Amino acid sequence: TNDKNGLITMETIRSVKEAHPEVKTVTGLSNISFGLPERKLINQVFMILAMGCGMDAAIIDSTDKRMMAIVKTATTLLGEDNFCGEYIQAYRKGKFTFEK
């Protein structure tokens, strides 16, 4: 495992999107945390960072409510949610309520 893999992946996503904006990028999210403790936390933070670099899609556990809330929130903060409508709708449906 290379401790620069996250950075390399994000730089690659950014470079591909700059050179070829029509190309779609997909990341196997959990690969970044293989062999590390607190994998969910690493995956969640990496998801936000990769989305900010232009990642189009990720292979994730769609039953992970917190991850789905993170995706929704990041989408809103990245300006991809018109008037924050999807975020507000998800909040009203209780999508951001988690067990502690």
UniProtKB/TrEMBL annotation:
<keyword id="KW-0479">Metal-binding</keyword>
<dbReference type="GO" id="GO:0046653">
    <property type="term" value="P:tetrahydrofolate metabolic process"/>
</dbReference>
<dbReference type="GO" id="GO:0005829">
    <property type="term" value="C:cytosol"/>
</dbReference>
<protein>
    <recommendedName>
        <fullName>Pterin-binding domain-containing protein</fullName>
    </recommendedName>
</protein>
<dbReference type="GO" id="GO:0046872">
    <property type="term" value="F:metal ion binding"/>
</dbReference>
<keyword id="KW-0170">Cobalt</keyword>
<dbReference type="InterPro" id="IPR011005">
    <property type="entry name" value="Dihydropteroate_synth-like_sf"/>
</dbReference>
<dbReference type="GO" id="GO:0050667">
    <property type="term" value="P:homocysteine metabolic process"/>
</dbReference>
<dbReference type="GO" id="GO:0008705">
    <property type="term" value="F:methionine synthase activity"/>
</dbReference>
<keyword id="KW-0808">Transferase</keyword>
<dbReference type="InterPro" id="IPR050554">
    <property type="entry name" value="Met_Synthase/Corrinoid"/>
</dbReference>
